[in-house]
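Most newcomers find our protein records easier to grasp once they have seen one. A learned vocabulary of local backbone shapes supplies the integers on the structure line. Here is such a record, shown just as it appears in the course material:
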Amino acid sequence: MRMSDWPAGERPREKLLSRGAIALSDTELVALLIGSGAAGNSAMDLARASLSHFGGLRGLCNAKPAAITERPGLGPAFAARLLGAGELSRRALREQITRLGTLTNPDNTRAFLHAQLRDLEHEVFCCLYLDNRNRVIEFEELFRGTIDGASVYPREVVKLALAYNAAAVIFAHNHPSGVAEPSNADERITQRLVKALALVDIRVLDHMIVGDTGCVSLAERGVL
């Protein structure tokens, strides 16, 4: 049965408009992005098959466009909508924290950094710039590397922190392996950054390592 033949209250689009997006299941949300069915399958059928094939919503949202378009009934338009929706979500969260300065809570900081960095396939070193009341000024990607490392240059970090007039910073980078355990190199560069920024009276509050299931705080490990 086509979705257009369903009762109005059960169609994903009508349900979203009347009850809000939270009322929809993962399958219904994906079906909305697919739009219309193909080859005798409704959008719900295609959504259900796609979620099963990619191992759930996270796997689907992080799939390569080529892998998505290989699936029967899915094309470039759906891949673009799906990847675009994921990026919009991350940017909305980033805009919220930079406008409202909501990262004064360590749990909020972890949740934000985890959402931004967890699924990247290459290592990225980022910085949260904070004012003297620990409110967020900006979140910025500083250095991008490979699957197993990124070069970090303290001189550039100091220059950018001064440009933002930051009073404090929180560093973060991801481990594409999914294992958040800090390496000796992570600890050494953190200590170098602490010393470099101390010369210009900028405090390093933490350095978070982002893995698959959470973040490890070097401040809590006693590295800072």
Q: What stands out?
A: The chain has a mean pLDDT of 84. The CA atoms of residues 9 and 19 lie 10 Å apart. The first helix runs from residue 12 to 19.
